[in-house]
Design a protein that fits this description.
- The chain is mostly helical.
- Helices cover 95% and strands 0% of the residues.
- The chain has helices spanning 2-38, 40-58, 60-78.
Length: 79
């Protein structure tokens, strides 16, 4: 009987953590929407930076290749 109680308690804690995570995601979504209304350029830059940082963690060789490509294109553009 104690085991069932512990299992029920653990499932209650997990459900509460999920509810908190959903609430925090909704707050984040409202903040991003408000950010796009208040300062769209800065919000877009922040989201772009987050995407690039995530890509740099997952695919570092791809990011290095893109950096080289951008450097070459800038050099060609100056000519």
């Amino acid at each position: 009987m104690k085991l069932i109680g512990w299992i029920l308690l653990a499932s209650l804690v997990i459900a509460a953590a999920q509810a908190i995570a959903v609430a925090l995601m909704l707050v984040l979504l409202v903040g991003v929407i408000w950010g796009f209304c208040a300062a769209p350029r800065e919000t877009f830059a922040l989201l772009s930076l987050c995407i690039v940082a995530s890509m740099a963690i997952q695919q570092p060789i791809l990011i290095a290749g893109l950096a080289v490509l951008v450097a070459v294109l800038r050099q060609l553009q100056r000519r």
